[in-house]
């Protein structure tokens, strides 16, 4: 048994490209737990495997002296040889299981070290299985990733990385971005049921996913000539991407859109027809905010750099376009720029600039909006003049601020 064990370990180490000493040490640790259970020992014994003969020795740990007064545990031990006569038979029964566990742990650690450096990278895979809580994607033979879509109201410790309206079929090709690789050696970071779940976690909602798709479709971004400065996204509905060109004569928006929209169309198709607005980044905050509200045309922008506040004036016929459905356009523009944006129509600006005696504040509110006026009040004391949404005190712009 002894010589056969060493021959088998040597062959296995060579086949799996594992250091033979490392394999022996792991096997000794695993056998230690087995012998503790088999021999009903109080402490984990020290198990050694002779490196030449393959013979196995078991040493019991016997406590010496008095236990620690505070912890009640012994700190010193002496060893006693308790190697059983049938040690080879007992080992033979446990070696196979031990080796399977060791190899599985080794493969997981290798996988972790490989993909830990690939966080943020775009991967393409094949859908193997979809459950209520996650989708399993095959990246390559023997390597799988998890696309979680848990109900966060029931599982707040988990995550949801799937756009709400997407549905996946078996064997469907799917792209995603790596957002996490679970460390197999850290039990604190491992989720419930981690033994049956892949270590690699991917996302189709993360803003980095859009950036990687543009890198794949736009050579100028991949080469670094055009830079993606910021991304604001409501996955499955709409995204805004701010781009900047390092070359004066290159239009960054045109480069991303492509001839007849061919480049951005490929991104939109991969996002299952999510709307994508590509806008030009500008170091001037006023210009940047105006661009971010695209496709609406802006008349003027006034910025307060101390309060990070931008007041935008748009033509009356552009107000609804600037705000967007349920405030989506304004909300994404605010996230993209990092500025608080207050949008006003031209007629409102003109009316508020008239003498107060001509437009009494209480009369104006009663006639125009009644009791349904948005309750939001800006830092300068100006109250929003939009209608409040049904069942809310605020309009679509200010409801989520």
Mean pLDDT reading: 85
Number of strands: 14
The coarse overall form would be elongated
Report the end-to-end length measured between terminal Cα atoms: 72 Å
Query: Briefly, what CATH class of one domain?
Result: Alpha Beta
Low-confidence stretches: 354-369
What percent strand?
Answer: 15-25%
Supply Rg.
32 Å
- Summarize the biggest pleated sheet: 5 strands, mixed, barrel
Going by CATH, what is the homologous superfamily of one domain?
Answer: NusA, N-terminal domain
Number of helices: 12
Assembly state: single chain
Specify the helix fraction band: 25-40%
User: What would CATH call the architecture of one domain?
Assistant: 2-Layer Sandwich
SSE topology string: HHEEEHEEEEEHHEEHHEHEEHHEHH
Q: What strand line-up does the widest sheet have?
A: 4-5-6-8-7
From the 3D structure, determine the CATH topology of one domain.
N Utilization Substance Protein A, Chain:P, domain 4
Content-based structural category: alpha+beta
Short description:
The protein is of the alpha+beta class and 401 residues long.
């Amino acid at each position: 048994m002894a010589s056969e064990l060493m021959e088998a370990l040597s062959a296995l180490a060579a086949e799996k490209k594992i250091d033979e000493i490392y394999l022996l040490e792991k096997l000794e640790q695993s056998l230690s737990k087995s012998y503790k259970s088999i021999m009903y020992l109080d402490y984990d014994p020290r198990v050694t495997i002779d490196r030449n003969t393959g013979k196995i020795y078991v040493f019991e740990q016997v406590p010496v002296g008095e236990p620690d007064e505070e912890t009640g545990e012994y700190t010193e031990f002496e060893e006693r040889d308790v190697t059983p006569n049938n040690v080879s038979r007992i080992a033979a029964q446990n070696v196979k299981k031990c080796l399977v566990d060791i190899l599985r742990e080794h493969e997981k650690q290798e996988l972790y070290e490989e993909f830990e450096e690939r966080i943020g990278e775009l991967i393409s895979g094949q859908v193997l299985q979809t459950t209520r809580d996650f989708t399993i994607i095959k990246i390559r033979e023997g390597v799988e990733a998890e696309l979680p879509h848990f109900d966060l109201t029931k599982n707040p410790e988990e995550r949801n990385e799937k756009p709400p309206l997407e549905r996946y079929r078996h064997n469907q090709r799917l792209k995603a971005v790596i957002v996490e690789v679970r460390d197999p050696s850290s039990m604190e970071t491992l989720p419930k049921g981690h033994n049956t779940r892949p270590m690699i976690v991917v996302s189709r909602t993360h803003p980095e996913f859009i950036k990687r798709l543009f890198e794949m479709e736009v050579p100028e971004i991949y080469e670094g000539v055009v830079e993606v400065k910021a991304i604001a996204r409501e996955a499955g509905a709409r995204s805004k991407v701010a781009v900047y060109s390092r070359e004066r004569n290159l239009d960054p928006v045109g480069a991303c859109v492509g001839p007849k929209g061919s480049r951005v169309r490929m991104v939109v198709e991969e996002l299952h027809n999510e709307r994508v607005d590509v806008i030009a980044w500008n170091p001037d905050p006023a210009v940047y905010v105006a661009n971010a509200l695209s496709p609406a045309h802006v008349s003027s922008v006034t910025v307060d750099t101390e309060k990070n506040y931008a007041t935008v004036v748009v033509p009356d016929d552009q107000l609804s376009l600037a705000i967007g459905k349920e405030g989506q356009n304004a909300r994404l523009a605010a996230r993209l720029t990092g500025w608080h944006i207050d949008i006003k129509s031209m007629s409102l600006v003109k009316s508020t600039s008239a003498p107060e005696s001509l437009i009494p504040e209480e009369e104006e509110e009663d006639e125009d909006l009644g009791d349904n006026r948005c309750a939001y009040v800006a830092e300068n004391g100006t109250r929003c003049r939009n209608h409040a949404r049904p069942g809310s005190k605020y309009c679509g712009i200010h409801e989520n601020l």
